[in-house]
Amino acid sequence: KSFADIPHVDLVMPQISVVGKVNYNNSLIDTTVYGVTKDYLEQSAISPVSGEIFENNDLDINIEVETETYFVEDKSQEEDLPDGWVELEGESGIGNVIEITKVIFPEQIKDKEVVVNRAFLKVLNLEEQEAIDKTFSISFIATISSLQTGEDRLESTSVDYKIIGVTPDDVTPLVYVPYTHLKVLGIDNLSQVKIVVEAEEFLANTRTRIESLGYTTSSVTDTVEQINSLFATLKIALASIGTVALFVAALGMFNTLTVSLLERVREIGLLKTMGMKSNEVRDLFLAESMIMGSLGGVMGLIVGLGMGKLIEIILSVYAVTKGVGEITIVNIPIPFALLVIILSFLVGVFTGLYPARRATKISALNALRYE
């Protein structure tokens, strides 16, 4: 509630994290369970590659639950525990005595639907194509770090959930359940809260307000700033390489035009004998150098765009197989393309000035006698 009272906060999306004991086809596994809302999944870009996310977006629920409390002093009393209970060492902050609260999962809750990831399906040895609408049993376990009521451990009864969506994450097994399903059990401590502000200009002030309450914050903008810094450094490196490449290209054009001039001395003499003026000879060489430079710029853009698109297609195919979606890495803005063409044109002009000037000074008589 304190977060919702902060000005310009649009959405407050809490998350509860507990341990889940899963029973599927008589196989028992432990997994991480996140209690979240529909908004949390959507704002976190947790999109299923199969199925869909649940519709539950509630933050509060008014249902009475039945509980039973047990105290376990040592392993010798394990036989006194109800069936399926396991004593965990090191969870109690009061010596060897563990206070365990058994919670009966409310039958009034009907939307028992979960979203799981690919890593969870691998643990269950369940194919992704067959996972939708499959059910498994799970009981939720919260330790002292998630509770405010003084117990050392809280455990719910086993309940059946249906898989309605599968996310592409294949590293750590995860299960997403509606937030109120864990809230109703009496789990009060949140593992994290995601907040959406109305506009980017309010982000800095909102983070300051939250941190003043004693919380640590992180934002997507932090990652974006790091990426921008990386790309800024990369741009400087590429600009340096491009400058060297431009100098080498200009030198190559100058050398090509100069050699072409020496090879075409007799042609220049013949043209002058036929009546071509020196200025026209100069314009001929300048035109060739400008065309060469401009075509070089256009061909460079085409080849660069083609190679980039090829890499983009390869990465997109790989990303689609992983369920991420298509990736776009190539974008040539029109102003940048025009800048490249104009710069190539100017390089052609400047590299053609010297050969064109030399061509105007060639004597027609000497040119015809040139071998």
Percentage of helical residues? 40-55%
Number of strands: 11
Taken in chain order, the helices and strands follow as EEHEEEEHHEEEEHEHHHHHH
Question: Structural class of the helices, strands and pairings?
Answer: alpha+beta
The DSSP helix count reads 10
For the largest beta-sheet, the strand count, sense and barrel status come to: 6 strands, mixed, barrel
Q: What share of residues are in beta strands?
A: 15-25%
Q: What's the end-to-end separation, in Å?
A: 94 Å
**Which spans have pLDDT < 50 for at least 5 consecutive residues?**
74-79, 86-94
User: Cα-atom Rg, whole angstroms?
Assistant: 36 Å
Shape descriptor: elongated
**How would you state the average pLDDT, rounded?**
83
The largest sheet has its strands arranged as: 1-2-10-6-9-7
Q: Could you provide a short overview of the structure?
A:
The chain is α+β, with helices and mostly antiparallel strands. Helices cover 43% and strands 21% of the residues. A hairpin with a 2-residue loop joins β1 and β2.
